[in-house]
């Protein structure tokens, strides 16, 4: 704990003097060179699956097509086809042993696991947190972080209470954290008895998951949601952070996710970083572009409210870039007390992050890491991993029945990412052509 800042300053001096080369910054190459680490069969499957996923009708009608193939081919053949393709490409496996195998495979490639809980629950269900607890058992061998779905109960109601004037004192993160820790009943005056019970149960569940994670040395990254649920979610994450990100804990153990496609993200990020710093708490951020753009716009139009999203993709890129800059400066100032995951498939964002890390003297394997989905963006992940950066692959796990609806939902949310994976497809087909015509994998340089 105590030596952290001093050590970071020393690293900074050493690192800036011994930059990647005397001539200054050397950008990473995302040209598929790192594909030499993968077998030809794996590359062929990746190309086939990414091509399929970039085909809009398949993504739109995925669930109907799955049901239709089960009826037509029977569940055994249909399941075998899915396992050999989409499931095999994007999912770690079903049993703890399969998950551990996937983790070992990632580690040989210089990558790390971020276990993603694949739930498709209704917002009022407790299943996500229970699945999170089960997921922690699979993680014990990997010591990687865990991405939790925000499916805590009462989020809609909680958001409307949080945004009411006067609610801030009763529903402060500190008060919720105290109730979590003591197990004492929290009575909130604007809630009736049933809602108070519901809130109490949610806090207990959250506390159990966080306790279990902390005992296993596993960090919890809580995913973001729709803007109608985010205020409640942020309050619950702030309560967890108040309890688990304290100065003696060696954290941050609880991280929140910030979506750059929302107009207020940069301002909120600055405010939250400042508040954590003032309270002496460690601050963990997963920075994403965001996945619910079309739905957010449709809801705003339907309700006649202001559209909370950036006007276009370029504006979202600018927002991501500004948030990234803000967080890298925070890391450079506050060192071990501030951590960032650059969760992006965008090559420009990744380049910006690596260049600024170099300029600010942030060590490669320090408080900044990168995150991408399993089975996607490997030309970026592998290049980062080989260069010595900390790279996490988000790995969903579970049975076909549990995971396929989750994957289809993610694919629908990430249409632009899947359709933008054209470059990865080109690099894969180039490498496959080279192997088939030129023979053998490319030699390591």
TrEMBL record:
It is an enzyme of class 1 (oxidoreductase). It catalyses: L-proline + a quinone = (S)-1-pyrroline-5-carboxylate + a quinol + H(+); trans-4-hydroxy-L-proline + a quinone = (3R,5S)-1-pyrroline-3-hydroxy-5-carboxylate + a quinol + H(+). Its cofactor is FAD. Its EC number is 1.5.5.2. Residues 171-419 form the Proline dehydrogenase domain. Signal peptide: none annotated. GO terms for molecular function: FAD binding; proline dehydrogenase activity. One of its GO terms (biological process) is L-proline catabolic process to L-glutamate. Keywords: FAD, Flavoprotein, Oxidoreductase, Proline metabolism. InterPro entries: FAD-linked_oxidoreductase-like, Proline_DH_dom, Proline_oxidase. GO terms for cellular component: mitochondrion. The lineage of its organism: Eukaryota, Metazoa, Chordata, Craniata, Vertebrata. Gene3D superfamilies: 3.20.20.220. Converts proline to delta-1-pyrroline-5-carboxylate. This is Proline dehydrogenase. Belongs to the proline oxidase family. It holds the Pfam family Pro_dh.
């Amino acid at each position: 704990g105590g030596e952290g800042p001093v050590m970071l300053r020393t690293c900074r001096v050493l690192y800036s003097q011994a930059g990647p080369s005397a001539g200054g910054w050397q950008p990473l190459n995302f040209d598929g060179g790192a594909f030499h680490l993968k077998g030809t069969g794996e590359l062929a499957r990746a190309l086939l699956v990414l091509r399929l996923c970039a085909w809009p009708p398949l993504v739109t009608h995925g669930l109907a097509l799955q049901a239709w193939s089960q009826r037509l081919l029977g569940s055994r053949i249909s399941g075998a086809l899915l396992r050999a393709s989409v499931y095999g490409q994007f999912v770690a496996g079903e049993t703890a042993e399969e998950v551990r195998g996937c983790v070992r495979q990632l580690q040989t490639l210089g990558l790390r696991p971020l276990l993603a809980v694949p739930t498709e629950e209704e917002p009022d269900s407790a299943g996500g947190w229970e699945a999170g607890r089960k997921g922690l058992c699979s993680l014990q061998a990997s010591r990687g972080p865990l991405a939790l779905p925000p499916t805590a109960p009462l989020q809609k109601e909680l958001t409307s209470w949080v945004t009411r004037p006067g609610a801030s004192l009763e529903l402060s993160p500190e008060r919720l954290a105290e109730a979590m820790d003591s197990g004492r009943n929290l009575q909130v005056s604007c809630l009736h008895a049933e809602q108070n019970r519901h809130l109490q149960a949610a806090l207990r569940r959250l506390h159990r998951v966080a306790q279990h994670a902390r005992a296993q040395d596993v960090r919890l990254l809580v995913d973001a949601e729709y803007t109608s649920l985010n205020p409640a979610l942020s309050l619950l994450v702030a309560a967890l952070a108040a309890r688990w990100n304290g100065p003696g804990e060696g954290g941050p153990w609880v991280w929140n996710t910030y979506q750059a496609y929302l107009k207020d993200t940069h301002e909120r990020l600055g405010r939250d970083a400042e508040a954590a710093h003032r309270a002496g708490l460690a601050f963990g951020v997963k920075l994403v572009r965001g996945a619910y753009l079309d739905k957010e716009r449709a809801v705003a139009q339907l309700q006649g409210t202001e559209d909370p999203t950036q006007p276009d993709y370029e504006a979202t890129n600018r927002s991501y870039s500004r948030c990234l800059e803000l967080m890298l400066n925070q890391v450079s100032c506050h060192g071990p007390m501030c951590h960032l995951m650059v969760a992006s498939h965008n090559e420009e964002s990744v380049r910006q992050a690596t260049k600024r890390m170099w300029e600010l003297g942030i060590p490669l394997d320090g408080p900044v890491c990168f995150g991408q989905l399993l089975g996607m963006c490997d030309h970026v992940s592998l290049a980062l991993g080989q260069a010595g950066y900390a790279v996490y692959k988000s790995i969903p796990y579970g049975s076909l029945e549990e995971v396929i609806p989750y994957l289809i939902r993610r694919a629908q949310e990430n249409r632009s990412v899947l359709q933008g994976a054209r470059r990865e497809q080109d690099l894969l087909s180039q490498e496959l052509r080279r192997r088939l015509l030129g023979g053998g994998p490319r030699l390591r340089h």
